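Entry type: protein chain
Record version: 2
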Amino acid sequence: MTENFREKIWHGADYNPEQWLETPSILEEDLRLMRLSHLSSASIGIFSWAMLEPHEGEFHFEWLDSVIENLSKNEQKFVLATPSGAKPHWMALRYPEIRRVTSGGQREAQKARHNHCPTSPLYREKVAIIDEKLARRYGNHPALLAWHISNEFGGDCHCDLCFGAFQNWLRERYNDDLDTLNRNYWSRFWSHSYSSWEEINFIDAPVHGLDLDWRRFMTHQTVDFMNHEIAAIRPHSQVPATTNMMGDFTGLDYAQFAPHLDFICWDAYPQWGNGDFLGDESEVGLWAAFHHDMFRSMKGLPFWLMECSPAQTNWRPVSKLKAPGVHRLSALQTLAHGGDAVMYFQWRQSRGSSEKFHGAVVSHQGNENTRVFGEVSVLGSELEDLSALAGARTAARVAVIYDFENLWAIYDEQGPRNEGKNPEKTSRDFYKPFWKRGISVDVVPSTADFSPYQLIVAPMLYMLRPGVAEQLTEWVRAGGTLVTTYWSGLADENDLCFLGGFPGPLREVLGIWVEETDALHPHQTNSVHIEDPTLQMEGAFEARDYCDLIHTETAHILATYEKDFYAGRAAVTVNKFGAGRAFYIAARLETSFQDQFLAHLSADLQLPSALNTQLPAGVVAQKREGNGFEWVFVSNFNGSQQSFTTSQSGFERLENRAWSPLDTSATQILTPYDTAILRRAL
């Protein structure tokens, strides 16, 4: 990687100067405003293909040369994108094969963006040509900070080229053995057996194994397309390369991208100010925190926030402004969870088309005299004082398993619940007690290395991919503490149910077997009563949605159901296994159960928190370590003033661009949406 890559916390924005080439005064004003806002980088070229190659084989780089020269003179670095996310009209019309085909077999018209076929050899050829030209021209420019490969990959193509590639992919996956594929797909069901590879030319969603393989293939094909782009660049540039991922998007398995990228970045658009989304501001903060940790965990290294809005979006049903202070809160939360960059979509609002009302650093007003610009500018100056934070790591002893293939399988299966499954929210519910207490968490796929962790939480681990159960079993045997839940251990990687009782190969380590699962209607509840005082929990907790009816084998009962025909049966168990233990939570319980239960486990395991003090509700602390310091961010997600104290000595607090010793006897004030930045020498 280039020497300057980890030199600071980067403050940047997507910049679209090609939209303003006829107005040079605006381009000049951009440079002045970038200095005022303390912008240290600009992402360019993301949707510039039609300007770079307006006609086939006719390339125009002079305008981009000028933009890069002006940014460099203005002391900004640049992130250069490959433009494959939006193909030019001439190409789409001349070469129809590059346009996607829908699941209904219709060739899409040229429209919008992100709608190319990832398989098309012709499109790959055209992409490689433009990428190589960009790399030759700018790949060793001293101001080039990183390569931005395409933009927000996603979407399926059902053309003949993709299905031909899919058939070849399947033949390799199944060693050219169609009988094995049919068995793994359980294809005799509904007479869906395949007698030739060529018959697999559409996706039949009820064949769950086929649907899972299609999703795996589209991930494979997209990663291969991305690598094709990187390969075009690498002979001419060794500058780090990344691609921007999306928080809630599960159409691709992002874990498969990580090994091929130099660093991870993602685009975050939580709905600040919408109480109906996940609750109050702290719940929206929870959503962001969970995804920050997921993307950080992909490589175990600091990530970049490549896009966020400094104001509002324009594509939600309602796009509310960030209240004063919320932008700083969300930006510093990025740093708290391992981010080394805060970047915006977009620098300047477009005059026309679909994103003209999307928030930006510079509004249509066009100058610095706005609330948003002022907040961005103040944040930019603060980030300059945090250069020593760049590269600092997060050390986690807890992992929450969040597996994309598992999500696909859960949404494919037609079981006791076909609505309200909510595996994503369930994962966040189990993550939240650690976040509230400042306990660092890695969010990892089920195939991760579990050895660094003391505690693993695996909510709704429906699909057990090859080797996962064995690894978890041996990890518990060696002393680990496992927590898993209802709707776990039901199916293998082909979505074939395990025979001999659920939770399949986890049965021994959990010491239970599941006979039935009751699905409760939205108006129905059960309750679970704590029986074992060692949990240090009292009373009953409401159960909704899922209730497993289990038999204990070697497990000990900690809590039982209170209602219905399964009253008195086990609802929470623990199994001592080797040097470790494994807990099973048989019902979807109210979040207060997770809070108390995981607080008990955290204390029992002596899991360290970021700041050894009791914080008010809605105030959370997160820690990073590196470059000789321990860094702690204490964030107030409340719209009211809060305070905290700490007895830990040696901390300094960053205030007014200066570090001041923290008085352990004094109360530290947090204004609404404030974040206290603390550090102390290691």
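Comment: The domain at 3-170+221-389 is CATH 3.20.20.80 (TIM Barrel).
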